[in-house]
Structure formats: C-alpha cells, structure tokens
Amino acid sequence: MTADASNWTLLLPTLIGGLVLGYLFGSIPSGLILSRLAGFGDIRKIGSGNIGATNVLRTGNKKLAAATLLADALKGTIPILIAWQWGFEPALAAAFGAFLGHCFPVWLGFKGGKGVATFFGILLPLSWPTLIAAAAIWIGTAWFTRYSSLAALLTSALTPVILFVSGQTLLAELFLAVTFILWYRHRENLRRLLNGTESKIGQK
C-alpha cells in the first residue's frame, strides 16, 4: 500500500464522520421547532411554506425570526468546530453535511430550508474575513432591492469567487458546490424574480 493510499484509508472514516455529524446537526428543523414552541403551529402552512427565518418573519414575530436565523447558522458552525478536531478535511465534510442536512432533512421528507443562514454559519469558522465580505454583499443587496432571495443568490455566487481570488482553493470548491445547491433551492424565487412577482422583505 502506498503512502497516499494509506493516508486516504486513515482519512476516510473521519470524512464520513464529519459528513454524518454535519448532516445530523443541519437537519434539525429549527424554524419548525421554534415556531411550534412559540404557538404558531406548523410554519410550513403559512407564507412560502419554508422553514427558514424569512418565512418565520411572516408570522410578524421578529424575535422568533432572529432566533431561527441564529439557530440555522449555529447548526452549520457547531459541527465544523467539532470535526475540526479530526482535521481540516473532516471540517469541510461537516460543512457540506450541515448544508445538505438543512436543505434536505430526512425527518421532513427531504424538504428543508433554502440554506442562507446555514451558508453563513459554515462560512464563519472556515473563513471569517470572507464572511464579512459576504455579509456586506447580502446587506447591501437586500437594502437596495428589498429582495432577500436576490441578496442570497448574489452573495452565494460571489463567495466562491472571493475565496478563489484570496487563494483559498479548497474552500472555493466547497462553496461552489454549496452555491449550486442554494440556487437549486431558490429556483422558484429566481423564476419569480425574473417575472416580477417575487415578494419583498416585509411582505406577507
């Protein structure tokens, strides 16, 4: 067995462990749980039917939406910090697993959130300077256009570019994959943006 093959054999269990750990954290339906605890019932029955913070905001409860946003971000951050004890590559696997878990949770028939908060949550421990740039892009776009979905699409598209330009190639590749998933989850939003029927921030 070659040295490279030996290293891969040793790394594979931690990669799988990171991926599974991330998925389990990411698949926790924060918005659904918090909305039910707050007495709003099944958040999937109002607004867009999504379990993320943007739809939770449609309940009119800003604190609940903020709590959902934080929880969705942390379920991306926490498994990365845990998996990082096994190495950088397992941390990347945990990041990808967390994003997959949020978007496609097995407990909800693989119908989860759209990934924006978790996108920022996995970016925080992996490259916080890029997080600041991404947050600025999101805030600026959302402020001027009032479209949360457009802000998410633009931010996710530019993040891999920022990472690549700054020499963080592995992270750029990870976030390119994550961006494809985020755009897929926003495909209906993209269609509404193109035909001018997308809801703006604050609209029911």
UniProtKB/TrEMBL annotation:
<keyword id="KW-1208">Phospholipid metabolism</keyword>
<keyword id="KW-0812">Transmembrane</keyword>
<dbReference type="GO" id="GO:0043772">
    <property type="term" value="F:acyl-phosphate glycerol-3-phosphate acyltransferase activity"/>
</dbReference>
<dbReference type="GO" id="GO:0005886">
    <property type="term" value="C:plasma membrane"/>
</dbReference>
<dbReference type="GO" id="GO:0008654">
    <property type="term" value="P:phospholipid biosynthetic process"/>
</dbReference>
<keyword id="KW-0472">Membrane</keyword>
<dbReference type="InterPro" id="IPR003811">
    <property type="entry name" value="G3P_acylTferase_PlsY"/>
</dbReference>
<keyword id="KW-0443">Lipid metabolism</keyword>
<keyword id="KW-0594">Phospholipid biosynthesis</keyword>
<feature type="transmembrane region" description="Helical">
    <location>
        <begin position="117"/>
        <end position="141"/>
    </location>
</feature>
<comment type="subunit">
    <text>Probably interacts with PlsX.</text>
</comment>
<comment type="function">
    <text>Catalyzes the transfer of an acyl group from acyl-phosphate (acyl-PO(4)) to glycerol-3-phosphate (G3P) to form lysophosphatidic acid (LPA). This enzyme utilizes acyl-phosphate as fatty acyl donor, but not acyl-CoA or acyl-ACP.</text>
</comment>
<keyword id="KW-0444">Lipid biosynthesis</keyword>
<keyword id="KW-1003">Cell membrane</keyword>
<protein>
    <recommendedName>
        <fullName>Glycerol-3-phosphate acyltransferase</fullName>
        <ecNumber>2.3.1.275</ecNumber>
    </recommendedName>
</protein>
<feature type="transmembrane region" description="Helical">
    <location>
        <begin position="64"/>
        <end position="86"/>
    </location>
</feature>
<feature type="transmembrane region" description="Helical">
    <location>
        <begin position="92"/>
        <end position="110"/>
    </location>
</feature>
<feature type="transmembrane region" description="Helical">
    <location>
        <begin position="161"/>
        <end position="184"/>
    </location>
</feature>
<keyword id="KW-0012">Acyltransferase</keyword>
<keyword id="KW-1133">Transmembrane helix</keyword>
<dbReference type="Pfam" id="PF02660">
    <property type="entry name" value="G3P_acyltransf"/>
</dbReference>
<keyword id="KW-0808">Transferase</keyword>
<comment type="similarity">
    <text>Belongs to the PlsY family.</text>
</comment>
<comment type="pathway">
    <text>Lipid metabolism; phospholipid metabolism.</text>
</comment>
<feature type="transmembrane region" description="Helical">
    <location>
        <begin position="12"/>
        <end position="35"/>
    </location>
</feature>
